[in-house]
């Protein structure tokens, strides 16, 4: 989706024939209120995607505080900054009827919170529409620049309500733009040839292991009595993501490792600082290899589209479908090689297909006891207890000639179980895979 750029008091976009001082559009989404601190250099030093905490990718040496609430850059420093050094902004989504175009527009604080008594900033415009019983997405809006402002400010005013046909058309265009393609229907080449650098792979017939795709989750280190636990959260929560682990046998893990090694070796971002060999990417759980795929809940200031889930017939399941551990699945991923503090290949989660579903059964804190059982017949009279003599007469008579020596019990023949591969053994396994795959 292209960006609508503001430059020299005009709107510029690839689909517009010329820069325009004003335009008509439908505001589809107002985005998330965010912050950015550029300092005196003009370069972004610290930023927040949720107005609460610095973003995950902010460099440690330029991060201003652990929380925006405690940051000195969010306090007014006088006339030099004309407000706080750390500025608010948001990225709104627009539909331009003149060109049938969906685009994005970044609005700075001056266009969000203007105190002008006549012209309407974005939030004042939203309040104005609500006062008149209207919603932002149902109105064709006129966007224009203030004439006497020192800083470029964008103002909003209503043009007319949209017709039902226009609303339906915009909704269809928006769904088309953001509906993910079904990777389990067409071939990879048919779906993803548009990105020549992207490498995709379909991992077939693996077992879901602690899937968390129904909503974003983050690892809360304070939960579970300080042991940590993945808990549901909003998309704007730092480190929020959709994720699932999956169990593979050794053959599946070897095939996946070989492909990951190739993506790691062939990435165009590789330079001499990258190690030659891909580090061990899997863990072991009960003689099975554990892979993991995830997707960040926020990317470039926008909430990402949740990974789509399909059933075996390629029918898309609801977004809140609760996938369970032990379900048999196919996983569609994108290989993302990286070289930061650690080196490896991330598996970016693109979609899941459920081949065999294990119904969800909530765990119980109780143990089985005698008493009420749902569905049991409680009307029948209990059987009478047998008399003591009758009870003992049911057993065979005691043998008098008990041998002095009890024969040694016969050893039970058990099936040999393949020993669990420990973490220390994985290096040799990877060496074997590398040799076989070369």
In a nutshell, what does this entry contain?
The chain is of the alpha+beta class and 438 residues long. The chain has helices at 109-112, 122-131, 164-178, 188-192, 250-266, 388-393, 426-437; strands spanning 2-3, 5-7, 10-12, 22-29, 34-37, 46-48, 86-96, 101-108, 139-145, 154-161, 199-220, 229-232, 241-248, 283-285, 288-296, 298-299, 302-303, 309-310, 328-339, 343-356.
Textual characterization of the structure:
The protein is α+β, with helices and mostly antiparallel strands. The chain folds into 2 domains: 2-178, Beta Barrel (OB fold (Dihydrolipoamide Acetyltransferase, E2P)); 188-356, OB fold (Dihydrolipoamide Acetyltransferase, E2P) (Beta Barrel), CATH 2.40.50.140. Helix content is 16%, strand content 31%. It contains 7 helices and 20 strands. The strands form 4 sheets. Strands 1, 4, 5, 6, 7, 8, 9 and 10 form an 8-stranded mixed sheet that branches. Strands 11, 12, 13, 14, 15, 18, 19 and 20 form an 8-stranded mixed sheet that branches. A hairpin with an 8-residue loop joins β5 and β6. α5 packs across α7. The longest helix is centred in the middle third of the chain and has 17 residues, at 250-266. It is globular. It starts with a strand and ends with a helix. Residues 186-196, 386-407 and 410-418 have low confidence and may be disordered.
């Amino acid at each position: 989706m292209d960006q609508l750029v503001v430059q020299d008091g005009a709107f510029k976009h690839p689909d517009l024939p010329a820069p325009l001082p004003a335009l008509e559009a439908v505001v589809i989404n107002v985005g998330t209120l965010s912050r950015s601190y550029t300092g005196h250099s003009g370069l972004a030093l610290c930023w927040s995607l949720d107005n609460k905490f610095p973003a995950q990718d902010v460099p440690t040496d330029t991060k201003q505080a652990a929380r925006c609430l405690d940051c000195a850059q969010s306090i007014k420093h006088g006339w030099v900054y004309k407000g706080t050094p750390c500025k608010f902004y948001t990225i709104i989504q627009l539909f331009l009827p003149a060109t049938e175009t969906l685009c994005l527009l970044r609005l700075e604080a001056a266009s969000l919170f203007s105190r002008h008594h006549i012209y309407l900033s974005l939030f004042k415009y939203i309040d104005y529409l609500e006062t008149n019983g209207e919603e932002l997405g149902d109105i064709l809006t006129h966007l224009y620049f203030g004439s006497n402002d020192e800083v470029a400010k964008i103002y909003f005013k209503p043009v007319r309500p949209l017709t039902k046909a226009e609303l339906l058309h915009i909704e269809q265009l928006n769904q088309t733009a953001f509906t993910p393609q079904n990777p389990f229907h067409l071939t990879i080449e048919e779906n993803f040839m548009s990105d020549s650098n992207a490498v995709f792979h379909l991992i077939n017939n693996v077992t879901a292991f602690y899937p968390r795709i129904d909503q974003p989750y983050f690892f809360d280190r304070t939960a579970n009595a300080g042991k940590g636990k993945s808990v549901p959260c909003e998309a704007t929560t730092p480190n929020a993501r959709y994720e699932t682990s999956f169990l593979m046998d050794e053959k599946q893990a070897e095939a996946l490792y070989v492909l990951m090694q190739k993506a790691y070796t062939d990435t165009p971002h590789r330079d001499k600082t990258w190690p030659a060999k891909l580090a061990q990417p899997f863990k072991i759980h009960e003689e099975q290899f554990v892979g993991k795929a995830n997707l960040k809940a926020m990317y470039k200031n926008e909430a990402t589209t949740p990974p789509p889930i399909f059933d075996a017939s390629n029918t898309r399941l609801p977004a809140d479908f609760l996938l369970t551990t032990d379900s048999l699945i196919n996983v569609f991923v994108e290989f993302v090689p990286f070289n930061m503090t650690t080196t490896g290949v991330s598996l970016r989660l693109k979609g899941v297909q459920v081949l065999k579903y294990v119904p969800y059964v909530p765990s119980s804190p109780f143990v089985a006891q005698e008493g009420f059982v749902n569905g049991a017949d409680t009307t029948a009279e209990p059987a009478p207890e047998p008399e003591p003599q009758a009870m003992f007469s049911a057993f065979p008579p005691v043998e008098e000639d008990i041998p002095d020596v009890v024969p040694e019990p016969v050893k039970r023949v058990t099936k040999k179980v393949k020993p669990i591969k420990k973490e220390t053994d994985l290096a040799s396994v990877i060496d074997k895979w590398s040799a076989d795959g070369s």
